[in-house]
Amino acid sequence: MMTQPGLVLFVTLAVASTPSRGNNECVARNFGHGSVVCECNATYCDTPGSIQLPPPGQYLSFLSSQTGKRMERSQGHVQNKSTGADLRLSIVSSQKYQRIKGFGGAMTDSAAMNILTLSPGAQDMLLRQYFSVEGIEYSVVRVPMASCDFSTRQYTYADTPGDYQLDNFTLAPEDTHMKIPLLQRAQALASQPLSLLASAWSAPAWLKTNGALIGKGTLKGQPGGKEHKTWAKYYVRFLDEYRKYNLTFWAMTTGNEPTAGELTNYSFQALGFTPETQRDWVSMDLGPALTQSQHQRTQVLLLDDQRLLLPHWARVVLSDIHAARYIHGIAVHWYMDHMAPAELSLSTTHHLYPEYYLFATEACAGWKPYDRGVKLGSWDRAEDYAHDIIEDLNHYVTGWTDWNLALDLGGGPNWVKNFVDSPVIVDRTRDVFYKQPTFYSMAHFSKFLREGSQRVGVSYSLGSDLETTAFIRPDGSRVLTVLNRSDKEVQFEVWDSTVGYIPSVSPTHSILTLTWAVPQ
């Protein structure tokens, strides 16, 4: 039990940490799903704003909670002596791990369509929330190559049978009229170049064994054959066409969820690979095609599927020197994470292949059959996001990418009616959009962990339900994010040997980010 030291801590908190409220508070709306959404329109939206750290000796905190706080900013003073809190979280800066690449979401056809249903002012406001320095500063955007389930139709860029030279390769109106203009606008708002990531769902039907974009099907022939060569050439042509719009890609994956087209009769676009056929396609076709193109700097991420496939999938591909020389990273999705402990999948893979980074490329809420679609204001989903991000980061993942940037109130559009949730939900009839609690889950990481930030250790003075991850940013400042999924408020202090003790409290069902500068 907390005795007199607890009283001292309470008084210290009241004096040392002062909430700052501006003109950008959340316009809260409650739809009965456990917490609130923040409503935004063409002229108003809450925003964390540009963050300037106070000098060493002070700290900033940002709190989001089930009770409705959304990135509430406070500022306080670092203490010279311990506050007496039972729980101490010590920053172990000598324990250094992976560096961050970034955080973001996907510009699917559906996301672009939803954004463009808003008025120009509301469109701009939505994009600012994600990409500007006043917003949450997304740095990664995943771009589907042609259609996926979050499209309104099935198509590829080369639907002419027998076109092995891809003479008729053409971007779709969804690219040229929607996704590309929005990506250009997002880039104009961002303070740094966006890292674009491409993933393909299916090859053209005439290249596949089942003659369809959906269902169980693989490429015809064998790696090294004309179908496999054409599919690799398709990747290069996609990069060529986007480059004409001044959009270059940091990375491409070897294909979205290859097990979907290999093992199941999938109801939407899929292309099957085994780890062996993916290995051989990369070594014989994709790798050489990229090397001989103008896009040698575009990196290749294998897998792009569930982490339960690790480390086996990585071992098959990366044990082959011919394939491994073309691979840079390993992409994972979150949907089956409950079936694959992070230590056994992610950490084992990192320790086996430390030169290849791990990167999370897709996640969404509302995908489970018993918990389907949009839930406006669901705090449970916010906690699911934060938990998975912290777990991934603490097991060597270098970034985390959400799925659709925006969906409508029904969780679409989606041609196969595979409706899910999104951090931003658009209500075009009112020309507003709602920022879900999951938006703020993303904010607690994307806003603070710039590219190059390095994870460091955190030690606990005693057992706790708090989930934490800590980083040193490129400028030397510190970031600690704390998730409390319990029904109990937890008082604690942070010990950083370079500055001292930071008194803090983690409210029940909350996400808290603390950040502070250190003496140079």
UniProtKB/TrEMBL annotation:
<dbReference type="InterPro" id="IPR001139">
    <property type="entry name" value="Glyco_hydro_30"/>
</dbReference>
<feature type="signal peptide">
    <location>
        <begin position="1"/>
        <end position="22"/>
    </location>
</feature>
<keyword id="KW-0326">Glycosidase</keyword>
<protein>
    <recommendedName>
        <fullName>Glucosylceramidase</fullName>
        <ecNumber>3.2.1.45</ecNumber>
    </recommendedName>
</protein>
<dbReference type="InterPro" id="IPR033452">
    <property type="entry name" value="GH30_C"/>
</dbReference>
<feature type="domain" description="Glycosyl hydrolase family 30 beta sandwich">
    <location>
        <begin position="452"/>
        <end position="514"/>
    </location>
</feature>
<dbReference type="Pfam" id="PF02055">
    <property type="entry name" value="Glyco_hydro_30"/>
</dbReference>
<dbReference type="InterPro" id="IPR017853">
    <property type="entry name" value="GH"/>
</dbReference>
<keyword id="KW-0378">Hydrolase</keyword>
<comment type="similarity">
    <text>Belongs to the glycosyl hydrolase 30 family.</text>
</comment>
<dbReference type="GO" id="GO:0042176">
    <property type="term" value="P:regulation of protein catabolic process"/>
</dbReference>
<dbReference type="GO" id="GO:0005102">
    <property type="term" value="F:signaling receptor binding"/>
</dbReference>
<dbReference type="GO" id="GO:0006680">
    <property type="term" value="P:glucosylceramide catabolic process"/>
</dbReference>
<dbReference type="GO" id="GO:0008203">
    <property type="term" value="P:cholesterol metabolic process"/>
</dbReference>
<dbReference type="GO" id="GO:0006914">
    <property type="term" value="P:autophagy"/>
</dbReference>
<comment type="pathway">
    <text>Lipid metabolism.</text>
</comment>
<dbReference type="GO" id="GO:0016241">
    <property type="term" value="P:regulation of macroautophagy"/>
</dbReference>
<feature type="domain" description="Glycosyl hydrolase family 30 TIM-barrel">
    <location>
        <begin position="100"/>
        <end position="449"/>
    </location>
</feature>
<keyword id="KW-0746">Sphingolipid metabolism</keyword>
<dbReference type="GO" id="GO:0042391">
    <property type="term" value="P:regulation of membrane potential"/>
</dbReference>
<dbReference type="InterPro" id="IPR033453">
    <property type="entry name" value="Glyco_hydro_30_TIM-barrel"/>
</dbReference>
<dbReference type="GO" id="GO:0007040">
    <property type="term" value="P:lysosome organization"/>
</dbReference>
<dbReference type="GO" id="GO:0004336">
    <property type="term" value="F:galactosylceramidase activity"/>
</dbReference>
<dbReference type="GO" id="GO:0005765">
    <property type="term" value="C:lysosomal membrane"/>
</dbReference>
<keyword id="KW-0443">Lipid metabolism</keyword>
<dbReference type="GO" id="GO:0030163">
    <property type="term" value="P:protein catabolic process"/>
</dbReference>
<dbReference type="GO" id="GO:0032006">
    <property type="term" value="P:regulation of TOR signaling"/>
</dbReference>
<dbReference type="GO" id="GO:0010605">
    <property type="term" value="P:negative regulation of macromolecule metabolic process"/>
</dbReference>
<keyword id="KW-0732">Signal</keyword>
<comment type="pathway">
    <text>Sphingolipid metabolism.</text>
</comment>
<dbReference type="GO" id="GO:0046527">
    <property type="term" value="F:glucosyltransferase activity"/>
</dbReference>
<dbReference type="Pfam" id="PF17189">
    <property type="entry name" value="Glyco_hydro_30C"/>
</dbReference>
<dbReference type="GO" id="GO:0008422">
    <property type="term" value="F:beta-glucosidase activity"/>
</dbReference>
<dbReference type="GO" id="GO:0004348">
    <property type="term" value="F:glucosylceramidase activity"/>
</dbReference>
